[in-house]
Design a protein that fits this description.
alpha/beta; 204 residues; 3 helices; Double Stranded RNA Binding Domain; two-stranded antiparallel ribbon
Length: 204
């Protein structure tokens, strides 16, 4: 169990990477880590931090910047969970930051590893779930394709330690209808945050 805690996030990243190298999944892969010692019952207010964009800056879906879509979706889900943002420099129970990543890959490049956003604080976390599409992988890997990844990270504002993080990663359908792309992004955010806060006994 101790080894699982130390290597949980690395294992999560490797899982997502392997899944993508095997073929183009039509649905995202998901994973979560969290600090088992955190008091999630006390996390009610949050400070929103600007979306960190890696390859996604100035990109839009249906005329709306991706970072704005992510912010709207995340705040909507958190509000439904009873979490409220604080104004200005008011104290908050936790901070929320999203990272959006766009990577371009080629079928024969071996699949560049998904950024694992590793942090020393994650040595105290427990990797407790990974889900992926149950649909068969699409045959073959195209000569080139793009992979989108979104991380949602919650931190203790005082220690800056990560208390919870979720990730979704998927081969993108950039030529699909903008509304379909927006719906897929919204669905990814909802599925990531479905496990925040973690339920008692979530770790295996």
């Amino acid at each position: 169990m101790q080894q699982a805690r130390l290597n949980g996030w690395l294992g999560l990243s490797l899982f997502v990477c392997i899944a993508l190298c095997c073929g183009c999944q039509s649905k995202p892969s998901y994973g979560w880590v969290y600090d088992k010692r955190a008091n999630f019952a006390g996390l009610k207010t949050y400070q929103w931090l600007s979306v960190e964009e890696k390859g996604t800056a100035f990109r839009q879906i249906g005329g709306k910047p991706i970072d704005q879509l992510v912010e709207t979706d995340v705040k909507r889900v958190l509000a439904a969970k009873g979490c409220t943002p604080v104004a200005g420099g008011a104290p908050a129970d936790f901070t929320v930051q999203c990272t959006t990543i766009l990577e371009f890959r080629r079928g024969g490049d071996g699949g560049a590893a998904v950024s694992d956003q590793r942090d020393p604080a994650l040595d105290r976390t427990e990797w407790y779930a990974v889900e992926s599409s149950d649909r068969a992988l699409e045959p073959g890997v195209p000569s080139s394709y793009s992979v989108g990844t979104i991380y949602i990270t919650m931190k203790d504002p005082k220690s800056q330690n990560i208390v919870w993080r979720g990730v979704a990663s998927s081969v993108l359908r950039e030529k699909s209808d903008p509304q379909d792309r927006a719906d897929r992004l919204r669905d990814a955010v909802e599925k990531i945050l479905a496990k925040f806060p973690p339920s008692p006994g979530a770790a295996g």
